[in-house]
Write a structure and sequence with these properties.
The chain contains nine helices and five strands, in the order H-H-H-H-H-H-E-H-H-E-E-E-H-E. By secondary structure, it is α+β, with helices and mostly antiparallel strands. Strands 2-1-3-4-5 form a five-stranded mixed beta sheet, covered by helices on one side. Bound molecules: FE2/S2 (inorganic) cluster. The site of FE2/S2 (inorganic) cluster has 11 residues, from helix 7.
Length: 208
């Protein structure tokens, strides 16, 4: 199997199959039981997809949505459903940055580092959050509490700098606001469940 998170080109994956390389041969091994969570997804949402190669990316998206990320068994399940080599599925998945290959933390912080946000301080903001959490963008804290990511634009540039915490979009953030949010996420929500008023939101979901 491709090393999780390692991005390879679709062409390289296909060439590997044609050459009968080690990963291609391994992928042709006898069927085995998959992770029960993956089996459950495949029997439900996964089974609804037509057995066509055009289903590949929608199935990857569905699996990630249902499972939170793309474990190796999910790609094996998709390969079996579409009757293609798992190497093809892994090659396509690794080509797109939207797919995650590691289990995400219980909370996700996404900092926009696009031009509008960057010139308003998101680069420093991201540095501060990385320092506070002790991880880099793309990583999850050792306790599984927080995953940190960065994106190049949320499409809400007038509200820069923009940070998304779980599904909540926060506008005009400062390092101080985000550091407080991170502290709350790591130590648990405020006892009364209230959000700090210094972190104005613009709603749930990624603006676009
Ligand atoms: S650059 Fe950050 S929302 Fe567009």
């Amino acid at each position: 199997m491709t090393e999780p998170g390692r991005r390879v080109s679709y062409g390289k994956a296909v060439r590997g199959i044609e050459a009968g390389g080690p990963s291609a041969r391994a992928s042709r091994g006898p069927g085995r039981r998959l992770d029960p969570e993956v089996e459950q997804w495949l029997a439900g949402a996964g089974a609804a997809f037509p057995r066509s190669r055009s289903s590949l990316i929608p199935m990857l998206q569905s699996a990630q949505s249902g499972l939170g990320y793309l474990p190796g068994d999910a790609m094996t399940a998709i390969a079996r459903h579409l009757v293609v080599s798992p190497v093809v599925v892994e090659g396509v998945a690794s080509f797109y940055a939207q797919f995650r290959f590691h289990r995400p933390g219980r909370h996700r912080i996404t900092v926009c580092t696009g031009t509008a946000c960057y010139v308003r301080g998101s680069g420093k903001l991201l540095d501060d959050v990385q320092a506070d959490l002790g991880i880099r963008s793309g990583e999850t804290t050792a306790d599984g509490a927080v995953s940190l990511e960065s994106v190049s634009c949320f499409g809400a540039c007038a509200l820069a700098p923009v940070v998304v915490v779980d599904d909540e979009v926060l506008r005009q953030q400062t390092g101080e606001m985000v550091r407080k949010l991170v502290k709350d996420l790591v130590s648990g929500p405020p006892a009364d469940g209230s959000r700090d008023e210094a972190s104005p939101t613009i709603g749930r979901g990624v603006p676009g």
